[in-house]
Automatic annotation (TrEMBL):
<feature type="domain" description="FAD dependent oxidoreductase">
    <location>
        <begin position="8"/>
        <end position="345"/>
    </location>
</feature>
<keyword id="KW-0784">Thiamine biosynthesis</keyword>
<protein>
    <recommendedName>
        <fullName>glycine oxidase</fullName>
        <ecNumber>1.4.3.19</ecNumber>
    </recommendedName>
</protein>
<comment type="pathway">
    <text>Cofactor biosynthesis; thiamine diphosphate biosynthesis.</text>
</comment>
<keyword id="KW-0560">Oxidoreductase</keyword>
<dbReference type="InterPro" id="IPR012727">
    <property type="entry name" value="Gly_oxidase_ThiO"/>
</dbReference>
<dbReference type="Pfam" id="PF01266">
    <property type="entry name" value="DAO"/>
</dbReference>
<dbReference type="GO" id="GO:0043799">
    <property type="term" value="F:glycine oxidase activity"/>
</dbReference>
<dbReference type="InterPro" id="IPR036188">
    <property type="entry name" value="FAD/NAD-bd_sf"/>
</dbReference>
<dbReference type="InterPro" id="IPR006076">
    <property type="entry name" value="FAD-dep_OxRdtase"/>
</dbReference>
Length: 381
């Protein structure tokens, strides 16, 4: 469709919704974004890893290829966003290391490395001493691991601030209400107001399923708890790279922030719309991250929070149209919303223009058979 005077309503103000609203407005669409609390929810809680390779899992090669394509777009996306917003987007390019504590954890990482090698994504295997030479903060319980320099990270809160600023400068109108229903041309808000549009994009994360019947069963909330830590004087410095780890089979990660801080996460639970952090979740995260990075025992604990990732039956996002009368959707990104923002934006812009989506993004078509699979598998990695 022509962008001139075309009214687009975006439902959802997380990273995906804000990214699409900003870029569509910059391309000439008249964009309204509906969200009672934009730049909050799972996007606010997230760790900010851009890690398609270290998130890889056998059987999810399509998701890996989508993630690799998107992380390659991130430097240009961040530069463009920073220029449009007049403030940094928070991209970190130091890379990622993956650590294993026991022999079982090391065997699992070896299996992952072998799988990646078979599909043409080799990674460097390192012993414990080699890992500590890269990151002295890693403790003696770590027996070995992997170096993945192309898996990046971003400060999610810097990113959200830049997206909000860029969207406002591009002319996006923000409506501080919750949407309760969406069609291809109308969004209904919780106060009964209807907002008419030429096109509607549902990007409401874990709450997308309630907005259109075709999304029922395709998107569900997956709870994740995170901790935010701050470096204190005298404590051992935080790592420079993102550190992911397996500790007795349990995954944990620590993502650096400016000033020596860390975001530690993340638990994973299929418990509906529960956003209360639990004692057990916090205990497990602190125990496991201290096994890998002993110096964090002297850090300050600033924040404990939980968010709801939008899970899908096959762990791939949903990017496309919901039939001739339905809205466009960009949701179901699960653990990878921030990672997949650039490739999602390119696909959404193509859909709005009536063009073909990029070939790598076609696996995310909501009409794919696996999107209706009844088997749900939670991957803990």
């Amino acid at each position: 469709m022509s962008t001139k005077h075309t009214r687009l309503v975006v439902v959802g103000g997380g990273v995906i919704g804000l990214s699409c609203a900003w870029r569509a407005a910059a391309d000439g669409f008249a964009v309204t974004l509906v969200d009672a609390a934009p730049a909050s929810g799972a996007s606010w809680v997230a760790g900010g890893m851009l890690a398609p390779v270290t998130e890889a899992w056998p059987g999810e090669e399509a998701l890996l290829e989508l993630g690799v394509a998107s992380v390659a777009l991130w430097p240009e996306y961040a530069a463009r966003l920073g220029e449009a917003a007049g403030q940094p987007a928070g991209l970190r390019t130091e890379g990622t290391v993956v650590a294993a504590t026991g022999s079982g954890d090391r065997a699992e990482l070896d299996a992952l490395a072998a799988h990646l090698g078979r599909i043409g994504r080799p990674v460097e295997r390192l012993g414990g001493r080699e890992l500590r030479r890269l990151e002295p903060a890693i403790g003696p319980d770590v027996r070995g691991g992997l170096s993945v320099p192309d898996d990046l990270a971003v400060d999610n809160r810097m990113l959200l601030a830049a997206l909000r600023a860029a969207a406002e400068k591009a002319g996006v109108t923000f409506v501080a209400r919750n949407a309760v229903a969406a069609t291809g041309t109308t969004v209904t808000c919780d106060d009964g107001e209807e907002i008419a549009a030429d096109a509607v994009l549902v990007a409401a994360g874990a709450r997308s399923a309630a907005l259109h019947p075709a999304l029922d069963g395709l998107v569900r909330p997956v709870k994740g708890e995170i901790l935010r830590l701050a470096h204190r004087p005298g404590a051992f410095p935080a790592p420079v790279r993102t550190v992911r780890a397996l500790v007795d089979g349990r995954p944990v990660y620590a993502v650096p922030r400016d000033g020596g801080g860390l975001v530690v996460g993340a638990t994973q639970a299929d418990v509906g719309f529960d956003t209360e952090p639990t004692v057990g979740g916090v205990r497990d995260l602190l125990r496991d991250v201290e096994r890998v990075l002993p110096g964090v025992a002297e850090f300050a604990l600033l924040e404990v929070a939980a968010g709801l990732r939008p899970g899908s039956p096959d762990n791939l996002p949903l990017i496309g149209g919901l039939g001739p009368d339905g809205p466009l959707v960009a949701t179901g990104h699960h653990r990878n919303g921030i990672l997949l923002a650039p490739v999602t934006v390119e696909a959404v812009l193509a859909l709005l223009r009536g063009a073909q989506v990029p070939p790598v993004a076609r696996v995310a078509d909501p009409a794919r058979p696996t999107a209706r699979s009844t088997g749900r598998r939670e991957t803990a990695r």
